[in-house]
Every structure is written in C-alpha cells, then in structure tokens.
Amino acid sequence: MPPLDPLAETETATRIVRTPTAHDSAARHVTGTATYIDDLREPQGTLHLAPGGAPAAHGRITRLGLEAVRAAPGVMRVLTPADIPGRNDCSPIKGDDPILAEGIVDFHGQVLFAVVADTRDAARRAVRLAEIEIDPEPALITVDQALEAEHRLVPDYSFRKGDSATALKAGPRHLSGTLMIGGQEHFYLEGQVAFAMPGEGAMHVYSSTQHPSEVQAIIANMLKLPHAAVTVEVRRMGGGFGGKETQAAQWASLAALAAWLTGRPCKLRLDRDDDMNMTGKRHDFRADYQVAFDETGNIRSYEVTLASRCGYSADLSSAVNDRAMYHSDNAYYLPAATILSKRMKTHTVSNTAFRGFGGPQGMLAIERTIDAMAWSLGLDPLDVRKRNLYGGADRDMTPYGMRVTDNILSELIECLEKTSNYRERRAAIAQLNANSRFLKRGLALTPVKFGISFTNVMFNQAGALVHVYHDGTVHLNHGGTEMGQGLFTKVAQVVAEEFGIDLERVQITATTTAKVPNTSATAASAGSDLNGMAAQAAARAIKTRMIEFAAAEFGVPASEICFRENQVFIGCRVIPFSEMATRAWQARVSLSSTGFYSTPKIHWDREKATGRPFYYFAYGAACSEVAVDVTTGEMKVLRTDILHDVGRSLNPAIDLGQIEGGFVQGMGWLTTEELVFHEDGRLLTHSPSTYKIPCASDVPADFRVALFNGANREDTIYRSKAVGEPPLMLAISVFAAIADALHSLVPGKSVPLDAPATPESILRAVQELVRA
Amino acid sequence: MREEIRFLRRGREVQLRDIAPSLTLLDYLRLTEHAVGTKEGCAEGDCGACTVVLRKHVNGRLVYQPVNACILLAGQADGAEVITVEDLADDAALHPVQQMMAEQHGSQCGFCTPGFVMTLFALYHAERAGPRDRSVVNDWIAGNLCRCTGYRPIVDAALSSCSGTTGDRFTAQESAVAAALRVLDDDGDVFVGSDARFFAAPGSIAGLATLYAAHSDAVLVAGATDVGLWITKKLQTLPKVIWMGRVRALAAIEDMPDAVTFGATVSHETALPWLAAIDPDLGELMRRFAGKQIRSVGTIGGNIANGSPIGDTPPALIALGATVTLQRGDAERTLALEDFFLAYGKQDRAAGEFVRTVRVPKLKAHERFRCYKISKRFDQDISAVIGAFKFALDGSRIEAARLAFGGMAATPKRARQAEAALANGHLANEASWQPAMTALERDFTPITDHRASAAYRGDVARALLRKALLELGGTATQDTRIVGIRETADAAS
C-alpha cells in the first residue's frame, strides 16, 4: 500500500482508541441479558396497544365501526383522533403524518385507530373486529403512475453544471437508458416498540428510536405539554438502519397518548407484519440517463432524472432525494451535468431514511451509465471508471459547487485491482464464459465516494455529559443512540483515552433527553464524528480542571501533568486516577461537564444549489465476481474483495463489522430483497417468509475485506472517518458483476437489468438481450 | 391419562395444567417465566431470533434440537428439557459458543444473537454434523437471520467454538438428564383441559385414532410449523389441539429393498439422509427446505397434509411415485400422493382421518431422478417453482417420465401431457424434447404472485426440464448448476 498517511507520524501513541475492542454489550448480547424495551419488567397494570390499519390505499372513510372492538374481551379503550389533546402529527418536518388518520386514507395500512387492552393478545384480536368502510378513490402506487399523473410531493429540484444539453448534442458518442431501482425494507430484527410511563404531569417514554429528541417534541406537542415534561430514553435498539429515525415516533406517540389518558403504563410493540406494512422503507427510483462521451470513455456530459416513490407524505423525502442528487456523480468528474430530481407522491407508506439515504440510488444510476458506455466502446468497465475519477488539473468540481480535495480513489482502486487479481480474473472469466452455455461469470470493480455530514447544516451538532465520581469511575452520556453500530463503545474509548483510564471504568448509559437536550438523530453516519467530539470536549473540560488543581496542589507546571494507565503523572509524582478524583472532589473541583460540538466548514445555499454540504468524503471500492444461470436467472456471488477508507480507525473490529454488514445489506437490496405491492396498494411481501434478506450462504464464500488506513485530512475525532452508510454501496459491485455476466451473452449491447436482480429480473434481462 | 404437560427446565420439572391449547413456547417463556433473553423477531419461524434448544431422549441417546419457540406449542415441549440462552453460561463463565460470538464480534445490535447462540449450541452438541466447515455452518444457521454483521464473524465464531469440542457442562449432565427425561417422557396419553378445550398428546396410534374419531373438529398438529402461524398471524384460537408427536410408531422409518416408508411425524431433518440416499438432488432439496429449526420439528406427513400449493416435498415425492396411507379409526386406505391433492387448500382427507405413512419408492437401475428448486434466496425460502422428474431410460431412449411441479398450479401437480409427449424421446436429441416443452404450456396455467410472474414460472418450468434432460444426456452439473452440484454425472445407462 502506498504511504498515504502523512499525519500518522505526528500522532501520539493511543492506548484505548484504535484497538479492536469488543462491543460494550457483547457479553450481554450472547447471554440474553441485554435488555430491549419489550424485555423491561412491566409494572402492574401495564396496558398494551395494537394499531388498526386502513383496508384501502386511498379514499374517504365513510364508516369507522368500532363497537365490536370496544366490546371485545380485555379492551380498556380505543384511541381515535378525537382523543388527541394537541397536535395529531408525528412527522419530522412538514406536519403531514397524522398519528391517527382522519377523513381520508392515503395508504393501505395507514393507522386509523388503536386498541388499548390488558394484554397484547387481546389488543391484536380486538383490532380485527373493526368494521371500516372506505369510499375508494384512484390510487397511485408506482413511480410510473405518479409520473404519469404528475403527482408531485414537492417541486422538482436540480443541480446544473455547465451547458449539459449542448454538450450532450456535441457527443461525440451518446447513450441513454432507464434503470428501475427497487426499495428496501429495513428488517431490523427488533420491531418498532415503545413503552410509556405516566408521571406527575409528565411522561417518560422508552422508545426504540434513533431520534429521541424528535420523539420527545412530537409527544409533547401531541399532549400539549412543554418539551421539558417529556423524557425519552433508549438504551439500545435491535437494529435501526434509518428505519427508526422518524418511524419510531408514531408508536411512541400512541403509547404515550394511551398512558396519558389511562394513567397507566402502556406498551406498543408492532408485530412484524404491521411493522412492514405501516412503516416507511427505502425509496424506489426510476433513473433516466443520457450521457455524451468520447471514444476513450471520457464523460463529456451527463443528464439524469431521478424520480422516486416518496409515498403519501414528506417525511425525510426531500433530504433523501437531495442526497441521491449529491451522489449522482459518485466518484466521477462530470464536465457538464444536469441532475434533475422528481419527488413523486404515491398512495403508499411514506418512504424514509435507510442507510445511504438516497445516495445508493444516485450512485447506481451513474454506475450503470458507465457500464453502458464501456459496453458500447468494447472497453473494460474498470478502465472507463478509472478514466473518469475526480482528480487532475481542474477535475475536482462537483455538480453542486463543492471541490473534491481529499480524493484517494486512484490509489485505493489501484491497490484493490492488484490484490483482487482483477485483470487475470477478467481474462479467465472471458475464457470460461466462451466455453459455458448455461452459466456465465461476471466481474466488476466499483468505487464509492460518500459525503459525510447531514446535508441540513443545522443537524451537525452534538452534546455530551460526563461525570467523574470520586472513586475514579466515569459516567458517560451523549446524544447518540446505540443500534448495534458500536457507537457507545467508540465514544467510551474516546473518553477512556482522554482520562488515560481503562475502558471498564467508563460507565455507558442510556441515551435520554433528560441529560443531553436538542440532539440530532443518530444518522448520516455521523454518530461517532459528532458525539465522539462532544464527549471528548466534556472529558477535556473536566481533565483541564483536574490538571489546574494538580498543578496548584503539587506546584508542577500543567505541561508536566499527564493521564495514562489509570494514573496521573504529576512531574515525578504518580498517583492513581481514582485518588486524583477524590482529592479534586475534596478540594471542591467540579467533576462534571457537558461537551458540545458543531461541524466546521459546511454551508449550503439551496436557492443557488451550491456550497459545501460535506465536511469530507469517505471512500471505498469493491470487486465482486458472480455466477449466473442464464436459463433460470439464479445467481450466486462467488467472491468479493473490499478495500474501504475509514480514516484512521477508532476501532478496527467495529469498522470491519460495519463494512461487512453494510455490504451484505446492500447486496440484499440489489438481489433478493423485493418489495411487491399489489395494484390495489397492499404490500404483498410483509414478512420474512416472502421478503428475503440475505442469509449466511448468500455471503460470498471468498470474502476479503481490508481497511485503507489513512488519516482523515479533516480534523475529525482521532482522524477517523464515518463508516455507517458508505459500505452499503460497495454492493453495487455485485449488481454490476451480474450485468457483466449477462453482457457476455451479446457483447456490445446494453444490459437491461433492473434492481433488485432477482432470478426473474435476471431472466427477463437475458430474454430481452437475446430477443432484440 | 396424564393431565398435565411436563418438561424439564433449569433442573426442575415444570408442569402445565391450565393453559390455552394454543399457547406457544415463546409466550410461555417471555410472559409466564419472564425469561426474556429469547426474542420474537417475526412470529413465523423465519428469522430464528426465538431459537431455543429442546434436549430430548431419542432412540437411547440425547439429542439437542434447535426449534423456533415462536411457533412451537408449549405442549410440544412435553418430555423434553427446554434450554434457553440464559442457561448456557456457568455463573460468570461464558459457554464456548458465547465466548467466541463475543470475541469474534458476532453481535452488533444483539437482537438476533440469542437465537444464533442457541443454534450454535445445538451444533456444538451435534454428533452427525460432519466436518465443521463454512458450508456446514451456513446450513446450520440458515434459519437465523442477522441484519447487522453480514454473518462472517458468526460463522467464524461457530468454526472456532464448535470444532473438535470436548464437551461442556451440559455434556457432563447427560446421564442424569437422560434418566430424568426417561421418567418424564412416558408412553401414556396426555390430555390437558376439558372436552371443549384441550391440548391432547396421545401416546399410541390407537389412542390417536380414537381421540381424533371422537373429536374430528380438533386441529391435528405434527410439527406445528404451519399451524403455529394460524395462531400467531391469523389469531386463531384452536380450542382443540391433538399433537401427534408422542406417538412413537408414527415416527418410524421402514427401509425396504424397493422403498422407504416414513411415519407421518418423521421430521424433515430425520428424513433427510434417507431421502438423500435415494438421490442426491433430494438431499439438496431437503437441505434447502426451511432452516434447521423448522426441519427439526416439521414433518414429512405435515408437509403433505397441510396441502400447500408449493409444499417443497410433495412434487419430488410425486415424481418418485410416492403413496400416502391414511387412517381413520381402524380403517386404512392408500392412494397415490398426487391424488391426495384435490384443489387449492383441499385434500382427500375425511373428517377424523390422519396421515399414517408415506411410502417413497427407491430408484430402479434404469431410472434417473432430477429435482430443482427456484427461489429468490437459495436457502430457507419458499420456492417459486419446483421441478421434479423421474425418467425410466432404455439407453438414451426415454421409456417413461414422471414430471411433477410445485408452484405451477393450485396443488403440486404432474405434467401429464408433457409426460406423454416425452415418451420415446431421446436424451441425445434435443429436438425430440420439443413436444414436451410445448405440452408443458398446456399442462399448467400458473399464476402471478409475490414470488414470481406466471410467465417466469412457465419459462423456468421448461428450463428445468431441459436442464434435467441435458444432465442425463451427459452434461456435467458443474456446467448446468450454481448450487447442488452432483459429485458425478450419471450418464444414461
């Protein structure tokens, strides 16, 4: 690997960060003693809720017959919109997501009422007794239907660079195409759940949410309470992936409403089918692209229209579609471009955040475009990819006015190309395919460049609260939430490093709005970047006070005091950290501090569509080989090599887990995971028997993952980089490899493969290729 | 008549007398015991988060069965020991599979982890798992979904903890537990409840026949891998449940020179090696049948009796010429398996009648078998199409063909017109297959659903038949298949 890390020399040795420390809850996970919300001991008198969904996709409710529901055994109460004292809304921004819908139904499964009963079983049974009549109105289910009807959620938005239309005409070569991209169900293993405990004019809610502060605000507004009267707490989620960023609020709201009205603890845990029917998913997209390029494969102009299925309401769709636009260049320099985004409103569940947040769809479109260019030119797609990478003189400007100044993809791809033996395998596969009638191999190496920061500048802030107790143990709290990604472990490592103490001395605590207020969602891959910095700031504030105290106490200059190995070194004196804490306490030194961080340098002008939305980029590349049966469409990934940039890793084991897990999740999105909606708007794939996420044997048997260990050029926490989302898009290599395999059937022709590449989708592409 | 369900739990005997017949083991654990380490992920046996282990005394030895507690009736634990994730660690010392899962970073969000730990615990104790390589582990955990890790660290943890084990404290307890279970697991009839609402588990065929004749409105349960979903998803109350799992004679396997006869409650896992011995494709079909947890309790008889239009085993068994024997009271009758399936959801089974045995003929020297399963995901998925074919060959001439499909009609069904069209075709002559390909289009009018479109099903049915004929004509399966490659190509004799 080339020497990439000029800052490595200057870093002082670390003891806790950079170690492959296990997840803080690992021992609890494996013994079944990690507590999730449904595992909490229920106080006596706890009631349970079940939501009742609409039996049609669109129409006016003409009858909501709840008599039998109310009369059912165990039912205490049935919640309807009239029961809500304040705002009937659980949307993140726009005010268009009713907690309980009234009058009009906008998607199949939309919640109209909720049963409160003495057991969960009784509540679920009662729900089914409802008699609901809806006067149906035409429902738009697909992106194409919404485009046809010009049914927009919000006005179109575009990025324009240069005169792309003129450049398109100039060619010299020209291609256009359409790619359909499927959505994705999060399938967190722990379904949506909330448990509300009424207090004295207050409400305490345990919510499996990535965004406690938002849940707090929504519940307060619903109950007409000050925000200060509502506390939302979450120790851990059983997976989130974006699916609990906004989607947790409705269930927490209903539980809190029931608790408010009955004065009893109330719990709502969705069953899997309700969860899949009633909560939003990754947006499906239709991408229509046009590209002009030269004979060697240099892009001259790129125009793409990205139309997405947003569902019935805004949710986070604007930001998701923005991010699709920001990533429609992926890693490639576009001399001229028009990126047009259409956010289509449909009568389906409102689509939402999902790892990558639109980025994957924008990227997939240009990766297909590059493949199509390579096919038409008879070039290896990798060569066309490399030719178009950002870099070189005046080749660093994105279509949105931000310069790419930290690009490492040339070196990274060069390295992966060698370690994956790309060229040798390319030749071997060509030979293999020439001699194989039914099975075709495909190979692809694709890059990822992913922008890090919330694109809404305001959200790039975080707070932490750290206490040092006089026995030398540390209480750590911050606004980030733990959903399995190891955030709590990483931030604890930062704090332990700061105090020079063992990780075990740092007590990790549940996220709660009572300790750190006004937090952002744990999202946008930014959890460690933001909360790590905030916690470091808090720890430093305390440490600074301890140093000032020690300097005065022992008459040693502050510069000669350091904290490591559970000791404080004060000149030539060494005392245990715990004793230091005791002495500072006795001397009336405050050992508690908040910490705060806001990301520097970022700004965005939405009107002009220009600015610096990202603090930095995270990079990676993957090389995948697949085998395809062209008679049935069956496909297997045989080998994947990944080289991924996490800056200088805070925790290589956790980062590796994010990379592998993200890749496999992305692979599922592009292969086996198919959301099938009936034309009447019902989701037909609403459980794992019909919706197939990858299982163990789908993981490439030969799976080689390495970290590209070079410092972040920006001053992030220990020069690390965000890792949550970027690896998901490494799976584009699988999709491209499938297309490559099919391309061998009719070289030179564009492969009409849509995502997800199910066996049926693959066979359809084969048939179209061979037919024409 | 025993009037309580009894099983072993943490060294003590648990007796259940006053329970809903449809109480699931997961609800018992979480709501009654508050043993909340075991999780509900899907409540349909597809994600494995609820996996617990039943330690049972079977044929003179203890077996460790991973099962989905979410769709297992509490009564099905009768006579077994129920082991859950909280039970493995010995005070502070983690069990080897827990230790490796933690050390190898096998958990992220941790919600699926208890289920994985329990499946690996069963693997740790499995005698016949063969060499613990990656593909063996993949098979074992096919019924456990993880959305975070990408599985690699879990497989590594399994490889490092389950290979060459010397035994754990559960091994050390085995003789004592075996003795305790022998006492618990008697041969008598169990009847918990009243005539109007009961969970019954007869101990003999006679007891079963009598009880079912008296209560023909009862729901007959073998493994409950289908009935469990009626409870958790359809919210059916099932006032009368008769579990067949304690009738030892129904779990018998009879090996004859020309056929194997399976008792109705032989589990898929138990049947797997017997079916694989008939033909490796059948072994591969069974390997891909659901996951270990479902195969451990789901039965050959149940997969037939529930009449699924797909039901992964019936097409293969029909192609082989299987027959099914039904019993009602003392009366028995036997019919060809294909004749058992009358229409969608309707079988030729009278009130009070139950599946007694399934007889599966072995292949004769001049017969060849092929079967293929097409699904979105290779492992633990329900097929879009299954094609299963038996050919009687005279050299390369096709004397006769039995072509059965699943997913092509409302029931598993033979392609009679294609069968006729294929007779006297030649393996070496692709043109001679064409009439059969055309006939297939007349044999079936498949539907479009969430698994596949009608057009795809038709295309694939033809592709599978063609694939079988090519393979029998001598094309190596390495060149025709992505999974399920056969060791040797069996060219026409």
Quick gist of this model?
Chain A has 772 residues and is α+β, with helices and mostly antiparallel strands. Chain A contains 19 helices and 29 strands.
Task: Throw out a few tags for this protein.
heterodimer, A: 772 residues, alpha+beta, eight-stranded mixed β-sheet, five-stranded mixed β-sheet, globular, B: 493 residues, five-stranded antiparallel β-sheet, 18 helices, 20 strands, 32% helix
Please, could you describe this protein's structure?
The complex is a heterodimer of chains A (772) and B (493). Helices cover 29% and strands 24% of the residues of chain A. Chain A is α+β, with helices and mostly antiparallel strands. The longest helix of chain A has 28 residues, at 527-554. Chain B is built from 18 helices and 20 strands. Chain B has helices spanning 25-32, 96-103, 113-124, 134-140, 152-162, 169-172, 174-184, 205-214, 227-232, 268-278, 280-287, 292-297, 300-305, 313-320, 337-340, 416-422, 434-443, 454-472, and strands at 5-9, 12-16, 51-58, 61-68, 81-83, 190-194, 197-201, 219-221, 240-243, 253-255, 259-263, 323-328, 331-336, 341-343, 346-347, 354-361, 367-374, 385-394, 397-406, 413-414. The longest helix of chain B is centred in the last third of the chain and has 19 residues, at 454-472. Chain B is globular. The mean pLDDT of chain B is 95.
Percent in helix of chain B: 25-40%
Helix content of chain A: 25-40%
Q: What kind of sheet is the major sheet of chain A? A: 8 strands, mixed
Strand arrangement, major sheet of chain B: 2-1-5-3-4
Q: What is the beta-strand fraction of chain B?
A: 15-25%
**Radius of gyration based on Cα positions of chain B:** 23 Å
The fraction of residues assigned to DSSP E strands of chain A is 15-25%
Tally of individual helices of chain B:
18
Distance between the termini of chain A: 46 Å
Largest sheet of chain B: 5 strands, mixed
Number of strands of chain A: 29
Mean pLDDT of chain A: 97
**How many beta-strand elements of chain B?**
20
The coarse silhouette of chain A is globular
